[in-house]
Design goal:
The complex is a heterodimer. By secondary structure, chain A is an all-alpha fold. Helix content of chain A is 81%, strand content 0%. Chain A has a domain at 80-222: MetI-like fold. Chain A is built from eleven helices and no strands. In chain A, helix 4 crosses helix 7, helix 4 (65-101) packs parallel to helix 11 and helix 5 crosses helix 7 (149-174). By secondary structure, chain B is of the alpha/beta class. Chain B has one domain: 3-Layer(aba) Sandwich (Rossmann fold), CATH 3.40.50. In chain B, the strands form two sheets. A six-stranded mixed β-sheet of chain B has the order 6-7-8-3-9-10, with helices on both faces. In chain B, strand 9 and strand 10 form a beta hairpin. The chains are: A mainly alpha, B alpha/beta. Chain B: It holds the Pfam family ABC_tran. Chain B: Residues 6-240 form the ABC transporter domain. Chain B: InterPro entries: AAA+_ATPase (IPR003593), ABC_ATPase_HisP-typ (IPR030679), ABC_transporter-like_ATP-bd (IPR003439), ABC_transporter-like_CS (IPR017871), MetN_ABC_transporter-like (IPR050086), P-loop_NTPase (IPR027417). Chain B: Belongs to the ABC transporter superfamily.
Chain lengths: 284, 244
Amino acid sequence: MADSYSGATSDTETDTDAQTVVADDRFFDDTVLRRVGVAVSSLFALGIILLLTYILTSQISYGLIPTILPQFIGAYGLVLGIVVASSVLSVTAGIFVGLARVSKTNITRGISAAYVQFFRGTPLLFQIFVIYFGIPTLWPGTFPIQGWGLPTAILSLTLNHAAYVGEAVRGGIGAVPDGQMEAARSLGMGYVQAMREVVIPQAWRNALAAIGNDQIILVKDTSLLTVIAIPELIQQFRDVNSATFDPWTPLLLVAIAYLSITVPMGRLVEYLETRADWGGDTNE
Amino acid sequence: MNNAVLQFDDIDKYFGETHVLKDITLNIDTSEVCVIVGPSGSGKSTLLRCANRLEEIQNGEIRLDGQSISAVDADVNRLRQRIGMVFQSFNLFPHKTALENVTLAPRKVKNLPDKEATQRAENLLDEVGLLEQSSSYPNQLSGGQKQRVAIARALAMEPKIMLFDEVTSALDPELVGEVLGVMRDLAGDGMTMMVVTHEMGFAREVGDRVVLMADGRIVESASPTSFFENPSTTRGKQFLSKLL
């Protein structure tokens, strides 16, 4: 892919803009550029492989793994649960935020814009604190919910990521040509029906990459929950590290745990994108 | 007058300060093919878009079979089912196959059973010569094929009148013929049609009446023969002289 790309551009450049490219061409023609690319990326990969090999052979206490594995598996299950709940909720809520953002009603549009401004404009960590420490104090008397940590986790991730999903959906709707709505309406469909049948399926496809990206960030954002003592993955790292002074063994498990969620998620998004291919090119 | 399917009664349309349609009165009779011609910016497309209320008018009234379309409380969704519209830019639904494009509205708006909707859609695609492409997506069709699917899609709602908004303007010249051919057949079947076009050959051959618009007004309304051979207004003469 990199090959054909650099080949194609430099061909046209040399044809059309010979004057300016000539000087560069002497040192950086196609072949040189390609070799530099291969060399740099290979060196980088080699460095990483050496580092990893060193860590895996000398820094990991494999004897420790069976002891700490259960707590990591527990944390993994918890993170997965939080991710599934917040993902479903934030994408669902985000679709409505996106619809509200393109509403013709000023109030709806204004309120949803303010919502996005706030939740996108303040750190997730701050929002976690507001919900975890702030909300219970507003209650007259004792706060009735025991174990407010898990609800805080799901609520904060949902509210925060619904703002991002909302923006992705808004962009996705904006990229659907007006003619689509007009064609649907001219056939007698109502606004809601036209949105559901015609505009949203196309907006969804347009927004899919951005939503997928955001949901992967959501997975990693669960690490912030360590500040309210949710027993998630980073919390396990801290426990093990403070007890054994061994950073690399728990870090390895943390990396495997996160990647085993985020990599399949990336694949899922790719699959959904190719499924919404509609017989070829992206745009009509 | 009693025969009129679509009536424009002294309508005015503004885009902000700009007065784009001025005192338009026009009746389109059953089975009539009314061709609207005129220079760009004369308001012909806007007039067509007012007819199914994609644009709002500020004065006057538009009626379909005597029922007001322009009234505030008009049931637009119901009225639009009886007005088919075909656009310059096709506006086919890219996420649906040709067949699904045609069945969508009958299924969702008229609640027609899938089987019946499919049957009807296949007949229509057959009529426009595209039965073999029924499972193709719009991206896989040529411009002329897309526009023929768009015509089938509009016909699937069994409209009383069809509006054509410069439907051949976005097509490669060699594809214009196949679309005009479908429209000619449709006119032959007695469909009432309002056609905004730059295709003077079509206007002359298929049109029952030619309406010339300029600067938001109707300046001439005549049979194709008298319009093209002997236009009665200077604007008409000017317009025709520029075509040659």
